[in-house]
């Protein structure tokens, strides 16, 4: 039975299995984990219905965006939750998070072109009484992030990990761009990375066998990967923080690569701005976070400054809206073509993008 506040052993094993291959057949997962197909399917449906676990199919940044930006928005007291909820409804945002203190929001935004990037930052994001300031950090290089796995589960043996790892597909050539049919399939996979071939075929009116071959090709050429997004607090990683780190430019690569080796790190990237490394870490407790900062981070000699910002709530992950108990009006700067707001907040909406 799935507990309400913490994952049991089978939940943890299922989550780690889907990190290895988000589209692995339930029969293969069941065989490796030593349970029935029906048990795995039932567990996944239950976790998915509760927004704890979801697989999304997403292309890498180079295919969907000209640039990524990490935004830090500072709000007047009492406004952050409503602003964060509005930002989460935008299709160009991922990882909308509330920071401790109650006045700061973090989010990742994507632009499809250089011109769109300028318009995105200059015209489309909120300015006004509720938002005091916005700082935009361009992501220059990612040292660790999706499709890398979130470490720390340790629920599978090395042999089980290898049995679940997808076999390398033959690379049949680089794809320069996605055709309209690919985009329609991507839209389906962004909502449900485990969507069946029948649903994917219906989106493009291709045969299921043709769709299957195309998906294999997109995956083999690196245009598509399957990302298992999950509530890390559910697996016991309850102390999450964003670190804003400064190092001399000559030490940026070495420090970024060193941070990427830390099992606590779920994201690490070089950025523009007053700091030049943005890192997110996940620890089991505040005591473990303190130990990480004072032992592992402190051991990196090039670091001259660290700002630690604890994350208190996710409002949106890769593509999943998470209900934080608010009903809101139109998304910030993003009415639809008919002048109406999007669906009520709390219903999942997905963006075809991935953090890192």
Number of helices: 12
Query: What about the largest sheet?
Result: 8 strands, antiparallel, barrel
Number of strands: 10
Mean residue pLDDT: 83
Sketch the topology as an H/E string, one letter per element: HHHEHEHEEHEHHHHEEHEEHE
Cα(first) to Cα(last) distance is 33 Å
| Poorly predicted ranges | 326-356
Q: Which class do the helix and strand fractions yield? A: alpha+beta
Q: What fraction, in percent, of the residue positions are helical?
A: 25-40%
Roughly how many Å is the radius of gyration?
20 Å
Largest sheet, spatial ordering of strands: 2-4-3-10-7-9-8-5
Beta-strand residue percentage: 15-25%
Cα shape: globular
Give the arrangement of secondary structure elements.
Blueprint: H1 9-20, H2 26-33, H3 37-49, E1 53-58, H4 61-64, E2 67-75, H5 80-88, E3 93-99, E4 104-111, H6 114-123, E5 131-144, H7 158-164, H8 180-191, H9 197-204, H10 208-220, E6 225-230, E7 239-246, H11 252-260, E8 265-271, E9 277-283, H12 286-297, E10 305-316
Helix pairs in contact: 2-3, 8-9, 9-10
Walk me through this protein's architecture.
This protein is an alpha+beta fold and 356 residues long. It is 33% helix and 24% strand. It contains twelve helices and ten strands. The strands form two sheets. An eight-stranded antiparallel β-barrel has the order 2-4-3-10-7-9-8-5, surrounded by four helices. Helix 2 packs across helix 3 (37-49), helix 8 packs antiparallel against helix 9 and helix 9 (197-204) packs across helix 10 (208-220). The longest helix has 13 residues, at 37-49. The relative contact order is 0.19. Mean pLDDT is 83; it is low at 326-356.
């Amino acid at each position: 039975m799935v507990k309400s506040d913490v994952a049991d052993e089978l939940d943890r094993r299922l989550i780690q299995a889907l990190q290895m291959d988000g589209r692995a057949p339930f029969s293969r997962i069941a065989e490796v984990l030593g349970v029935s197909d029906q048990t795995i399917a039932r567990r996944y449906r239950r976790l998915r219905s509760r927004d704890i676990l979801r697989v999304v199919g997403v292309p890498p940044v180079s295919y969907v965006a000209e640039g990524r930006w990490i935004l830090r928005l500072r709000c007047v007291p009492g406004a952050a939750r409503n602003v964060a909820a509005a930002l989460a409804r935008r299709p160009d945002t991922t990882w909308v998070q509330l920071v401790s203190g109650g006045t700061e929001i973090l989010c990742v935004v994507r632009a499809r072109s250089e011109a769109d990037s300028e318009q995105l930052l200059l015209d489309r994001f909120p300015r006004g009484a509720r938002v005091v300031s916005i700082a935009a950090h361009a992501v220059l290089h990612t040292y660790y992030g999706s499709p890398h796995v979130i470490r720390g589960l340790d629920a599978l043996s090395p042999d089980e990990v290898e049995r679940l790892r997808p076999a390398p597909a033959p690379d049949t050539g680089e794809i320069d761009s996605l055709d309209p049919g690919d985009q329609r399939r991507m839209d389906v996979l962004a909502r449900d990375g485990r969507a069946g071939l029948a649903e994917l075929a219906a989106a493009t009116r291709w045969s299921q066998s043709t769709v299957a071959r195309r998906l294999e090709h997109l995956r083999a050429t690196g245009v598509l990967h399957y990302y298992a997004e999950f509530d890390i607090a559910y697996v016991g990683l309850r102390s999450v923080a964003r670190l804003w780190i400064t190092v001399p430019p000559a030490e940026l690569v070495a420090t970024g690569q060193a941070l990427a080796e830390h099992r606590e790190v779920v994201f690490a990237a070089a950025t523009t701005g007053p700091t030049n490394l943005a890192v997110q870490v996940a620890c089991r407790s505040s005591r473990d976070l303190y130990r990480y900062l004072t032992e592992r981070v402190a051991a990196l000699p090039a670091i001259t400054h660290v700002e630690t910002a604890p994350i208190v709530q996710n409002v949106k992950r890769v593509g999943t809206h998470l209900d934080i108990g608010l009903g809101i009006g139109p998304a910030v700067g993003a009415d639809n073509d008919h002048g109406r707001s999007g669906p009520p907040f709390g219903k999942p909406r997905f963006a075809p993008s991935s953090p890192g």
